[in-house]
Design brief:
By secondary structure, this protein is an alpha/beta fold. The protein folds into 4 domains: about 5-300, Mur-like, catalytic domain (UDP-N-acetylmuramoyl-L-alanine:D-glutamate ligase); about 310-435, Alpha-Beta Complex (Protein-Tyrosine Phosphatase, Chain A), CATH 3.90.190; about 440-555, no CATH class; about 585-845, Dihydropteroate synthase-like (TIM Barrel), CATH 3.20.20. Helices cover about 40% and strands about 15% of the residues. Strands 4-3-2-5-1-6-7-8-9-10-11 form an 11-stranded mixed beta sheet, sandwiched between helices. Strands 27-26-25-24-23-22-29-28 form an 8-stranded parallel beta sheet. A 6-stranded mixed beta sheet has the order 12-13-17-14-15-16, sandwiched between helices. Strand 23, helix 22 and strand 24 (about 665) form a beta-alpha-beta unit. Helix 14 packs across helix 20 (about 545-555) and helix 21 (about 610-620) packs across helix 22 (about 645-655). The radius of gyration is 27 Å and the shape is globular. It starts with a helix and ends in a 7-residue tail after the last helix.
């Protein structure tokens, strides 16, 4: 079974209407031999905020060193987003394994008229995967209610009800108290239920759960009317104070439980998110003994896409998946803390929502653009336009697609304006793809490469066999919604190219498309998309959307605005552009300078300042463009170094070599060390943890420095830890794209960001060599690419043991340079400079003077 077949099987279960009760899910798990036994589960119920709270609990527990599963819904772009282990999406291979295990059972139950629903089957898959991965704790976001929800098939060790509003009244009850009573059935047997509910709803929860811990919030004067404890019928057990925004994307929060006190920042804005943080903090402390620092760090790292997510500041661009009146009211309160001139609202919602009440609770926009997310449940945009007209909005427009509405709005917006996308997470997902979508260039040298590119996009076997011979020129893999992909395929076919689509072809899911053609065919395709024509004059609501696809193709294929350079394989031979970075016009050499006693290759050689300075001078003389100074080893089993000690190692060296003719990079995962090193004269931060320190991105932005973001599973490396990848390159690209966006949201320009695939960090030797062979695909991220391979253990597999890996390192440097790496990071500069220059000379002899 292929992945697309497994996914289609799951999605087809949506035809079965939801039904109350856990019996169906329990029977399905019994068929799987109850894989959840031995896993501790946490259930998070609530009308709003349960997904954010679940994410905060999960991230806090991971900071305590636990392996944690997370199950949430809905997903933004990919089915697999719903199920994560330690932050990583469930692999496609696991989805296939699961469906193969349940296919016959579900089919038989369907024949009897008792098929599990989509949500029940997905819930069972999450529980099955968490058991298979042997997680310590699994956090489950409840679907509807609590008593009869599929997630209630487990016996939780901790639970929460975040909030209660009137929702699903036909199922849960007609009053908030009745709804609260249903949700309260998630209460654990041996621990108190944690809740942010008050009033009659709280009394209903107490009737069911008995033992309850209440969390209440108050605001200071900066964010609206202060809420005092006197307003609570019963003072909360845990008091949360929302301190307001500390920057454009974080807020200060204080949690006071009497016997413990916590102050931190969270990346989720609004008083309601402070309450969610308080609930998450209480739950995390119920589950494990974690320090205040770990808890504060976990809450601050709980990024949750599409929940009041600030994507840009000029203009202010906000995405929020508010999907009911209560969430819209919270959105309005948070937005009121920002200053802007004109507000444009882009609104798309599902047909079963209270649109008039949502419009009434949202801030009144200057312009409202109603649109339709690409799925059958979306409300008609004309209906929504009528709602906003009746709500008193003076300028109401419609647009066929979320993406086009956003592109049009951003093109017209001034720097001081605000653009808000809301109404549904589905609308937010389509808008968010503007910042994440990227075509991946494929190196296709033979039929085997062609088959791999096609199969990797879940193209059916018949299509692979038919099209493999056509994938021999330029090949690009991209992800679009089915309508866009179909239109693009038709365009490319007209010009003689080919396009293969994933077998997963649903209107409400993105599909992979593999585009194949000559340079000329791609150029004609791009010109057609840019002109908005398909064989004749055309001007419609999708013109911006098509222009955006054209822009992404130009960037992926590295065609400049005047057309492609047919002689260029990766675009590295283009004319140099003005830049403060040396890799703008050649593959740069980064020399490694470890001022540590225990690094794996050169530990102890340069831990004296004088020796380190002499080494740096020699590397620059040999051709190093960047000196990368590291004060903490990340080798397997290395002990962490306190920030003060790391600063004492690094800063004196930075100060001494600041005047060398090379950029200075500091190799650190601690924001405090980065700040001190940049203050001392450093230019770049090389963060091997991929921004795990939540302060790091703000430090780099404040200094206007460069940033290397590495894909890392663990730093220091955990020996023998293996991660399951479907495709190591594409999986790493996917995970790095979110890290890049995280850096950009802090104010770091993309031109200042470098990506590092992270050789040796959660990757096998085989995967390391695959990354080397496909290094050019990382250019899909729109950032320079660093390859760091020097003397690593991957070379054991080509007959080079520790101490004898120099020649293999040199060979890999040449390959990396030839395949488009922008920076090569090595210990031995002279030999690797020669290798890189040789590779570049072979590619383009005119680069050098003869």
């Amino acid at each position: 079974m292929e992945y697309y077949e497994a996914a289609d099987f799951l999605f087809d279960l949506r035809r079965f209407r939801p039904k109350p009760g856990t019996e169906s899910t329990a029977r399905l798990l019994a068929h799987l031999e109850n894989p959840h036994e031995g896993v501790d589960f946490v259930q998070i119920a609530g009308s709003n905020g349960k997904g954010s709270t679940a994410r905060m609990v999960e991230r806090s527990l991971r900071e305590a060193g636990l392996s944690v599963g997370l199950y949430t819904s809905p997903h933004l772009e990919d089915l697999r987003e719903r199920i994560r282990v330690d932050g990583r999406k469930i692999p496609r291979s696991a989805v296939r394994d699961y469906v193969e295990a349940v296919h016959e059972y579900i089919t038989q139950r369907g024949a009897d008229g008792e098929s599990p629903t989509f949500f029940e089957t997905m819930t069972a898959m999450a529980i099955w995967h968490f058991g298979r991965e042997d997680v310590d704790v699994a956090v489950l976001e409840v679907g509807i209610g609590g008593k009869y929800d599929a997630t209630s098939v487990v016996d939780p060790v901790a639970s929460a009800v975040t909030s209660v509003t009137l929702e699903h009244t036909g199922i849960l009850g007609d009053t908030e108290a009745e709804i609260a009573r249903d949700k309260a059935h998630v209460a654990p047997a041996d621990a108190p239920l944690v809740t942010g509910v008050s009033g009659d709803a709280l009394e209903a929860i107490r009737d069911v759960a008995g033992d309850v811990v209440t969390v209440g919030s108050r605001r200071d004067g900066a964010d609206g009317t202060a809420v005092t404890e006197a307003e609570h019928a019963i003072p909360p057990d845990v008091r949360v104070t929302y301190g307001g925004r500390t920057n454009h994307t974080e807020a200060a929060v204080t949690v006071d439980a009497g016997d413990w006190h916590l102050e931190t920042r969270i990346p989720l804005l609004g008083t309601h998110q402070a309450e969610n943080a308080g609930i998450a903090a209480v739950l995390a402390r119920q589950l494990t003994d974690l320090s205040d620092d770990a808890l504060a760090r976990g809450l601050r790292n709980a990024h949750w896409p599409g929940r009041f997510e600030v994507l840009d500041t000029e203009p202010l661009v906000i995405l929020d998946g508010a999907h009911n009146p209560g969430a819209c009211e919270q959105l309005a309160a948070t937005l009121a803390t920002y200053e802007y001139d004109t507000l444009t609202l882009i609104f798309g919602a599902m047909h079963d929502k209270d649109h008039r009440e949502m419009a009434a609770t949202l801030p009144t926009p200057d312009v409202a653009i109603t649109t339709e997310p690409n799925l059958e449940r979306a409300e008609d945009r004309d209906v929504l336009a009528e709602v906003f007209t009746d709500a008193g909005v003076g300028d109401v427009r419609t647009n066929a697609t979320v993406q086009d509405a956003l592109a049009t709005t951003l093109a017209d917006a001034d720097a001081d304006d605000c653009v808000l996308v809301t109404g549904s997470l589905f609308a937010v997902a389509e808008a968010r793809s503007r910042w994440l979508s990227a075509g991946v260039p494929k190196r296709v040298r033979n039929l085997e490469d062609a088959r791999g590119a096609l199969a990797g996009a879940d193209v059916p076997e018949s299509g692979v066999h038919r099209l493999q011979g056509d994938a021999v020129h330029r090949v690009v893999k991209t992800s679009l919604d089915h309508r866009q992909a179909t239109a693009l395929k038709q365009d490319l076919l007209r010009f003689g190219g080919e396009c293969a689509l994933s077998g997963l072809r649903r209107n409400d899911e993105t599909v992979d498309a593999v585009l194949m053609g000559t340079v000329s065919q791609f150029e004609r395709l791009i010109e057609t998309l840019e002109s908005g024509t398909r064989g004749g004059p055309r001007s419609d609501a999708r013109s911006h959307e098509r222009a955006e696809i054209a822009r992404e193709l130009r960037e992926t294929l590295e065609f400049d605005s005047n057309g492609p350079d047919p002689s260029s394989d990766t675009g590295r031979d283009a004319e140099p552009t003005a830049s403060k970075y040396p890799w703008a016009d050649h593959t740069a050499m980064m020399g490694i300078l470890n001022v540590t006693p225990d690094s794996f290759h050169d530990g102890g050689e340069y831990d004296a300042v004088g020796d380190a300075v002499a080494r740096a001078e020699a590397m620059v003389e040999a051709g190093a463009d960047v000196i990368d100074i590291g004060g903490e080893s990340t080798r397997p089993g290395a002990d962490p170094v306190p920030a003060d000690a790391e600063i004492d190692r690094v800063v004196p060296v930075v100060e001494r070599i600041a005047d060398l003719d090379a950029l200075i990079s500091v190799d650190t995962r601690k924001a405090a060390v980065a700040d001190a090193a940049l203050e001392a004269g450093g230019d770049i931060v090389n963060d091997v943890s991929g921004l795990e320190d939540p302060e790091m991105r703000f430090v780099v932005a404040e200094h206007g420095a460069g940033l290397v973001v590495m894909h890392s599973i663990d730093a220091p490396v955990v020996p023998d830890r293996r991660i399951e990848y479907d495709d190591v390159v594409e999986d790493v690209i996917d995970q790095l794209s979110e890290r890049i966006l995280l850096a950009e949201k802090a104010g770091i320009d993309r031109e200042d960001i470098v990506v590092d695939p992270g050789i040796g960090f959660g990757k096998s030797a085989r995967e390391g060599f695959e990354v080397l062979g496909r290094i050019d695909e990382f250019r899909a991220l729109g950032c320079p690419v660093l390859f760091g391979h020097s003397h690593k253990s991957m070379f054991d597999h080509v007959g080079r043991e520790a101490g004898d890996r120099g020649a293999a390192t040199v060979a890999a440097s040449a390959i990396a340079a030839d395949r488009g790496a922008d920076i090569v990071r090595v210990h031995d500069v002279p030999e690797n400079v020669a290798a890189v220059r040789t590779a570049l000379a072979a590619r383009d002899p005119d680069r050098f003077e003869w």
